[in-house]
Design goal:
By secondary structure, the chain is mainly α. The chain folds into two domains: 91 residues, Uncharacterised protein YqeY/AIM41, N-terminal domain (Hypothetical Protein Yqey, Chain: A, domain1), CATH 1.10.1510.10; 51 residues, Arc Repressor Mutant, subunit A (Orthogonal Bundle), CATH 1.10.10. Helix content is 75%, strand content 0%. The protein is built from seven helices and no strands. The protein starts with a helix and ends with a helix. 21% of the residues are buried. The model has no long low-confidence stretch (mean pLDDT 91).
């Protein structure tokens, strides 16, 4: 389970003592997962956050840090931008390998063919299929743009 991998990585980083950034980032990940666990309990689900939910949390954290790094670059704060990028690398250790733009294009074409999609009205179900199959491994902003180009 992904949650256990993150806990193990946190313990290892704490033992190493020279990985302060890694420890801090892993603690942030655990805090986000615990928030999701609490929300799951409120929904009367005993099992807590699923791996799919954890992947969504990690993907969101990467996106937030990319946006922050870009803002820090624009604000002439390269040291803070570098810190954000270092946190991204720690988070990505727990995400599946990200698909390249060419791989995303192939996946989009395959889903369009499978669903026999012919227009933008079919975009929702095609994007849903992509999210089901490639959760955490695909940039859905890029996929949406490519799909829109294919369907128009």
């Amino acid at each position: 389970m992904l949650k256990e991998q993150i806990d193990t990585a946190l313990k290892s980083a704490m033992r190493a003592k020279d990985q302060k950034l890694r420890v801090a980032t892993l603690r942030l990940i655990n805090a986000a997962i615990k928030d999701r666990d609490i929300a799951a309990r409120a929904e009367d689900r005993c099992e807590g956050a699923t791996d799919e939910e954890i992947l969504a949390i990690l993907t969101k954290m990467v996106k937030q840090r990319e946006e922050s790094a870009e803002a820090f670059d624009k604000g002439c704060r390269p040291e803070l931008a570098e810190k954000e990028r270092a946190e991204i690398e720690v988070i990505r250790d727990f995400l599946p390998r990200q698909l390249t733009e060419d791989e995303i294009k192939v996946a989009v074409e395959k889903v369009i063919d499978e669903y026999d999609a012919s227009g933008l009205k079919d975009m929702g179900k095609c994007m849903g299929a992509l999210k089901e199959r490639y959760n955490g491994a695909m940039d859905f902003g890029c996929a949406g743009k490519l799909m829109k180009e294919q369907l128009t």
